[in-house]
Automatic annotation (TrEMBL), chain A:
Residues 1-20, 85-104 are annotated as: Disordered. Keywords: Carbohydrate metabolism, Glucose metabolism, NADP, Oxidoreductase. Pathway: Carbohydrate degradation; pentose phosphate pathway; D-ribulose 5-phosphate from D-glucose 6-phosphate (oxidative stage): step 1/3. Pfam families: G6PD_C, G6PD_N. It comes from the Eukaryota. This is Glucose-6-phosphate 1-dehydrogenase. Residues 113-291 form the Glucose-6-phosphate dehydrogenase NAD-binding domain. Gene3D superfamilies: Dihydrodipicolinate Reductase, domain 2, NAD(P)-binding Rossmann-like Domain. Its EC number is 1.1.1.49. Catalyzes the rate-limiting step of the oxidative pentose-phosphate pathway, which represents a route for the dissimilation of carbohydrates besides glycolysis. Residues 294-588 form the Glucose-6-phosphate dehydrogenase C-terminal domain. It catalyses: D-glucose 6-phosphate + NADP(+) = 6-phospho-D-glucono-1,5-lactone + NADPH + H(+). Signal peptide: none annotated.
Length: 597, 599
């Protein structure tokens, strides 16, 4: 399987999935037999499909590259010959590549960035696409389309994009060449987000580029949530692929609570099947979050420790060292709990705490994650503390309060900081506090997972540790950003004639070991979406379960108008977080005196 | 607590309780009072008590060497300690601590320690013992009244000895400006006496000199026997008969070899015990004084994450590796008589193995640890001939330089079959280790200088990522490496994802490199061991029953090797050793961790 090892781009499940070739065959088979069923009845096809989907879905266990929905949007004519064509080469099927060689040359991929003039598109999406192109991870025939309301020519779009592209990966001499080549593949289409006509126009342009070849289309919705559904409706009705797949990447926020999220999902599902929806959580694309499962499941030394028997508490910490900086309009409507905790931190928690999945396939992993979420108690108000940063003058410089932000109401109670204690009521984790902490305008920028182990029972050396044995326990830290690192705090003897113990780190500093730059989370996630790898995207039931945990709390906070604890800009956050931790007999690992990092 | 300020010197049984040092002075006073008033022990007795670290049997040694006039009442003393302990249950730690420190405070000025290096003109004395003593002095670890005596057959004046000693002293620890001064002060405490090793008269003479220096104070005497084994007994006899302390303790440090096999070792022990109690005998194994060997127990017992893994359930094999990058270099006379198995394996590596594999001791007291070590040794099968590979280095020409064969050494017989390399597989037949191979490897004239412990873990059962590991799952297991020398380090090999878009796994290290974390130089093993001997800490010294058990594992195979005249496998000087070691490992499904391609 030489190709598996050499392709740097293939995402994980394609890389290993032991049954992928079987899956492909199975998929081809279902594809083939399902063709006649929707012959000519394209309007209700999607309907039928979404009904039959669930069953097939489980039948196939995990439908990887070519979701069933791919043909729900196909038109009947193209179906049959294609199906035959695809059935012929199963022997040559390359499990690691979404399409067989023969197909690859004939299929096209169009990535349409809806909201192309926005910030995220410019800062993240286009650069990530270029990086993928640069690394030869995109299919041969790919096109990038920008779609937004602004009138722009292709040239203007290219000009705009080119400013944010960098050849960061490793400075090869052909970077400019590559950039030119990439920009030549970028096009622009202006239109209204809720106009089916505009999307019909887009469809026309896409078809031009596809030139009759198999068409796969990926829509990246980089737009405000209130127009999600409109765009999805228009895109699915007017710009779906006729003979390949159509997928839609959606960014957070996925609603504000259980109801609005449920409503959004319901609306999306009117036009898309579950397999077409790629809810992105870019934290799941971070290198060390990806590595979390590898650490757990490919090292004998960690798995035996991964339970309430040995782990005392787990801390999920996210902090930013800047505030909303004049752009708090969106944030104020959501707050830090919705913005960071309910999605990023909770997702990491689920990955951390899940049982060993049957395989590394997306559905197996997501099944396990949902189980974790469903085993958790909804958060109680007393297990949460909220904070908001206030103005602070330091070294002659004055830092603004959250409410100084002109886009934020003066009397806003929106938390910019929150800490919470969560519990998983299952056999593995019963009673273990999972502490989350997220905040803006804190003293450092940091995202990390800290696992504090229990103290050594009957410790022979306990006299060396002072009165609090828990202060000297082992701690495993996965630092997601900045400076990716894994380290394990251990007790060892201070070299010398005495017997003084010390906590040292067993270290793996990524920068030292892997000098190559680590790809941005968006690159990984875009590639996964292109390849149909859903492992890092959030399934509807996961999302529901996540909201179910946070919605009662969020409501109570808002109904009772809980006043956030104010903390100075650039500080370590409200002290309430310490008291919350103390209540559960935990000490924050990132704020203890001895920590120098 | 002035005595505690020099805390860095104390070995741990004295001051493990660093945290409470600041808060316990009141307790200390109390304890002192209780101690003296309730038991009525004389102050003179205290040091012996102190040094014995509350082990009952340690009195006997002292008592034996003591004058009968000494007011000894160990039973009452013990009882009073008990009483005190009971009374102070809540603060028992500080009480124990202060027991030691209080004693020091009171008796410090009145007791003396004299360290007599028997064989003072020898190599070990010059290279290791005197420098270690100076380093201890330099770090203020020696008692106030200490004297160093050199004793040997050569005629020398004190000044000549000082001159000789001064050449090897360095201020290595950290270059403080007063090093020269300290050196002078140290040298002023060094004296010399010449005499025969088997002459009681000469030792009586020595005793006289020692008494002069003690000036009537409580006298504690440590003899370091840095002499060939054939005169051990004579020296011990003379020292104990004629130069024992009259009112303090007398201890004797003995260096390897402790015999050649079970019989000779037992004979040696028996002879020593004619003159010394077990508690007076300090059999030194300087490997046990190495920083990372000391740290082994700390790692195991003070970290939750290691102990659950420490058994046959998770550990696939353990490797104990020792290699030197030089041969006998013209000094093979002694070595040829012993060979690498006796020189390195039966003592250093086996001791480390026992420490590694022992059950959790009841406490960190010397006897508790040594009890556990003996249990390990007694659970082991004697080594079989087929589980041993031996080798001998042959000459090798590299880059125009000719490296000699072992038998080119002029002090070695031309037809010597003495192994300069050996590898062996050992097994511990207890519940924790049944079936786990412990592989040892030791050799001279190899490609690197190294001493390390490698712990290879089992593969992950039902590994989700096993597609990434190729066919041999065991190749990608975790491995814990404790590198004893050079460049002390601990690292744990883990599998992680190579950063990037794919899913390639890689083996990285979670590292603790001592040089990076601890800038201060690590003390030499001899410093630690000398200090322990002075303080009566026996944890790192080998007890007679340990020694017996160790010999009984190796004696049959040594005998068989010699009787059958097994010819060693030859390996070139500077190579990685005979390939036979790989086949031995392969038989137990082990791969040497130090010779993997990635290293």
């Amino acid at each position: 399987m030489a190709t598996r090892l050499t392709t740097p781009c293939s995402s994980s499940s394609t890389n290993f999935s032991p049954s992928s070739s079987f899956n492909n065959e199975a998929k081809l088979f279902t594809r083939f037999i399902s063709m006649p069923r929707k012959y000519g009845l394209s309007t209700w096809v999607s309907h039928i499909h979404s009904k039959t989907h669930a069953r097939k879905h489980f039948l196939l266990n995990s439908s990887n590259e070519h979701p069933l929905n791919a043909f729900s949007l196909q038109d009947g004519l193209a179906g049959n010959p294609l199906a035959k064509e695809r059935i012929e080469p199963p022997g040559k099927e390359r499990p690691s590549i979404p399409m067989s060689e023969a197909e690859k040359e004939e299929s096209t991929l169009s990535i349409t960035v809806v909201g192309a003039s926005g910030d995220l598109a410019n800062k993240k999406i286009f650069p990530a696409l270029f990086a993928l192109f640069y690394e030869d991870c995109l299919p041969e025939n790919f096109t990038v389309f920008g779609f937004a309301r602004t009138k722009l020519t292709d040239e203007e779009l290219r000009n705009m994009i080119s400013k944010t592209l960098t050849c960061r990966i490793d400075k090869r001499e052909n970077c400019d060449d590559k950039m030119d080549q990439f920009l030549k593949r970028c096009f622009y289409q202006a239109g209204q987000y809720n106009s089916e006509e505009s999307f019909l126009e887009l469809d026309k342009k896409l078809k031009e580029k596809e030139a009759g070849k198999l068409s796969n289309r990926l829509f990246y919705l980089s737009i405000p949530p209130n127009i999600f559904v409109d765009v999805v409706r228009c895109a699915s009705h007017r710009a779906s692929s006729a003979n390949g797949w159509t997928r839609v990447i959606v960014e957070k926020p996925f609603g504000r609570d259980s109801e609005s999220s449920g409503e959004l999902t319901r609306c999306l599902k009117q036009y898309l099947t579950e397999d077409q929806i790629f809810r992105i959580d870019h934290y799941l694309g971070k290198e060390l979050v990806e590595n979390l499962s590898v650490l757990r499941f490919s090292n004998l030394v960690f798995e035996p420790l991964w339970s309430r028997n040995y782990i005392r508490n787990v801390q999920l910490i996210f902090s930013e060292d800047f505030g909303t900086e004049g752009r708090g309009g969106y944030f104020d409507n959501y707050g830090i709990i919705r913005d960071i905790m309910q999605n990023h931190l909770l997702q990491i928690l689920a990955l951390f705490a899940m049982e060993t999945p049957v395989s590394l396939e997306a559905e197996d992993i997501r099944n396990e994650k949902v189980k974790v979420l469903r085993s958790m108690k909804p958060l109680k108000l007393e297990d949460v503390i909220v904070g908001q940063y206030k103005g602070h003058g330091k070294g002659g410089k004055s830092y603004p309060a959250y409410t100084d932000d002109p886009t934020v109401p003066k009397d806003s109670l929106t938390p910019t900081f929150a800490a919470a204690a969560l519990f998983i009521n299952n056999a593995r984790w019963d009673g273990i506090p999972f502490l989350m902490k997220a905040g803006k305008a804190l003293h450092v920028k940091r995202a990390e997972i800290r696992v504090q182990f229990r103290h050594v029972p009957g410790n022979l050396y306990k006299r060396n540790f002072g009165t609090d044995l828990d202060k000297a326990t082992n701690e495993l830290v996965l630092r997601v950003q900045p400076d990716e690192a894994i380290y394990l705090k251990i007790n060892n003897k201070v070299p010398g004639l005495g017997m003084r113990l010390d906590r040292s780190d067993l270290n793996l500093l990524y920068r030292a070991r892997y000098p190559k730059e680590i790809p941005d989370a968006y690159e990984r996630l875009l590639l996964d979406a292109i390849e149909g790898e859903r492992r890092l995207f959030i399934r509807s039931d996961e999302l529901d379960a996540a909201w179910a945990l946070f919605t009662p709390l969020l409501r109570e906070l808002e109904e009772k108008k809980i006043f956030p604890e104010l903390y100075p800009y650039g500080s370590r956050g409200p002290v309430g977080a310490h008291y919350l931790a103390a209540k559960h007999n935990v000490r924050w690992g990132d704020l203890s005196g001895e920590i120098y990092e | 607590m002035a005595a505690l300020s020099s805390i860095h010197c104390r070995s741990y049984s004295y001051s493990p309780f660093l945290f409470s040092s600041s808060s316990s002075s009141i307790n200390g006073q109390q304890f002192q009072r209780i101690n003296f008033s309730s038991s009525g022990i004389s102050k003179r007795f205290l040091p012996a008590k102190l040094f014995s670290q509350s082990r009952k049997n340690s009195y006997h040694g002292v008592v034996l060497m003591q004058d009968v006039a000494m007011p000894v009442n160990p039973v009452e003393n013990e009882a009073s300690f008990k009483k005190v302990k009971d009374g102070l249950l809540s603060s028992i730690t500080s009480a124990e601590e202060l027991k030691e420190t209080a004693g020091f405070d009171v008796n410090k000025d009145e007791s003396t320690v004299i360290i007599t290096v028997v064989g003072a003109s020898g190599d070990l004395a010059k290279k290791k013992i005197f420098p270690a003593l100076f380093a201890l002095y330099y770090e203020d670890c020696l008692p106030k009244h200490f004297t160093v005596f050199g004793y040997a057959r050569s005629k020398m004046t004190d000044a000549e000895l000082r001159n000789m000693v001064s050449k090897t002293l360095t201020c290595r620890i950290d270059k403080r400006e007063n090093c020269g001064e300290k050196m002078d002060q140290f040298l002023k405490r060094c004296f010399y006496d010449s005499g025969q090793y088997d002459s009681e008269e000469n030792f009586t003479q020595l005793d006289k000199k020692l008494k002069e220096h003690e000036g009537g104070r409580l006298s504690n005497r440590l003899f370091y026997l840095s002499i060939p084994p054939n005169i051990f007994i004579d020296a011990v006899r003379c020292a104990s008969m004629s130069a024992s302390s009259a009112n303090g303790w007398t201890r004797v440090i003995v260096e390897k070899p402790f015999g050649r096999d079970s019989e000779s070792s037992a004979a040696l022990t028996k002879a020593l015990k004619q003159y010394l109690e077990e508690d007076q005998i300090f059999r030194i194994d300087h490997y046990l004084g190495k920083e990372l060997v000391e740290n082994l127990s700390v790692l195991r017992f003070s970290n939750l994450i290691f102990e659950p893994l420490w058994s046959r359930q998770y550990i696939r094999n353990v490797q104990l590796i020792f290699s030197e990058d030089f041969g006998t270099e013209g000094r093979g006379g002694y070595f040829d008589h012993y060979g690498i198995i006796r020189d390195i394996m039966q003592n250093h590596l086996l001791q480390i193995l026992a420490l590694f594999a022992m059950e959790t001791p009841v406490s960190l007291d010397a006897e508790d640890i040594r009890n556990e070590k003996v249990k390990v040794l007694r659970s082991m099968r004697p080594i079989r001939l087929e589980d041993v590979v031996i080798g001998q280095y042959k000459s090798h020409i590299k880059g125009g330089i000719t490296y000699p064969a072992y038998t080119d050494d002029k002090t070695v017989p031309k037809d010597s079959l003495t192994p300069t390399f050996a590898a062996a597989a050992l097994f511990i037949d207890n519940a924790r280790w049944d079936g786990v191979p412990f592989l040892m490897k030791a050799g001279k004239a190899l490609h690197s200088k190294r001493a390390e412990i490698r712990v290879q873990f089992r593969h992950v059962p039902g590994n989700l990522y096993n597609r990434n590991f190729g066919t041999d799952l065991d190749r990608a297991t975790n491995e814990l490496v404790i590198r004893v020398q050079p460049d002390e380090a601990i690292y744990l090999k883990i599998n992680n994802k190579v950063p990037g878009l794919g899913m390639r796994l890689d083996c990285s290290n979670l590292n603790l490199h001592y040089a990076a974390r601890y800038s201060k130089e690590i003390p030499d093993a001899y410093e630690r061991l000398l200090l322990d001997a002075i303080e009566g800490e026996r944890r790192l010294f080998i007890r007679s029953d340990e020694l017996d058990a160790a010999w009984s594992l190796f004696t049959p195979v040594l005998k068989e090797l010699e009787e059958k005249k097994i010819i060693p496998e030859y390996y070139p000087y500077g190579s990685r050793g005979p390939v036979g070691a790989h086949y031995l490992a392969a038989r137990y499904n082990v791969k040497w961790g130090d010779l993997g391609a990635e290293q």
